[in-house]
Amino acid sequence: MGVGTAIFLGLVQGVAELFPLSSLGLLVILPHLSHLAVPTTGAKYLPFLTALHLGTGLALLIYFLKDWYQLLREGLWSLLGKPSSTGRLFWMVLWASIPAGVVGLVLKNPLSHLFGKPMWVAVFLIVNGFIMMIGDRWHQRRAADRTLEALQPKDAVRIGLFQVLALVPGLSRSGSTMTGGLGEGLSYQEAARFSFLMATPIILAAALVELPHLHAGAHSLLLPALIGGITAGCAAWLSTRFLMRYFQNHRLRAFALISMALGVFSLVIMH
């Protein structure tokens, strides 16, 4: 894999992971649409994609560094009998991270086979759009928005179940979890913030599992992964900054339509 390809894929990852368009879906489809010289089988491509996700996760960690400092501090204080709303939010993020972590470990091998089936991934991009449409509909039915501090463990777990969908290439992590948050009564901005916070631990945990496999095989992807990961991190930081402002006044509808259009376009081209 060349440096230019790694940078290009890193840009796609950094933008599409936070914009609800499924970075995994696009990274699976693009090599088949543009004939990029990348190993698209799950065993070789998945560790490289994990490195790109690591760059994204680190960017999220840096962007929300002040939040994470307060969350960790207050979360630990709550264990010592000094509860606070920030401490509760820390535990809500952890509760929400459990479903995707468990399912990812159990279904890792079956899910990796989808990386070699771009037609299915294109279909899931269309499904991804419908999921976000449902999120918009749920929000419209709410009389008032809830705050993150009002979430209960059962609410966090339900939102976390939506993150499980993101294990399927073509279904967006941010789109799915924002839909889950909207279903629990959060505003678009609060749903986006919670989505980005809960994505950080699961992305970093996945990286710890997959990154050692970058050395496997004669053709090491370590250097391209490093370059792509840095590129993805820079793009993800800028994307997060934009989206936290965007969702103050906008819905998911535009991204839903873009995702469905990308899925239909990919199906037509590949067919």
TrEMBL record:
It catalyses: di-trans,octa-cis-undecaprenyl diphosphate + H2O = di-trans,octa-cis-undecaprenyl phosphate + phosphate + H(+). GO terms for biological process: cell wall organization; peptidoglycan biosynthetic process; regulation of cell shape; response to antibiotic. GO terms for molecular function: undecaprenyl-diphosphatase activity. One of its GO terms (cellular component) is plasma membrane. The keyword Cell wall biogenesis/degradation applies. Its main location: membrane. Belongs to the UppP family. Bacitracin is thought to be involved in the inhibition of peptidoglycan synthesis by sequestering undecaprenyl diphosphate, thereby reducing the pool of lipid carrier available. Catalyzes the dephosphorylation of undecaprenyl diphosphate (UPP). Confers resistance to bacitracin. This is Undecaprenyl-diphosphatase. The gene is uppP.
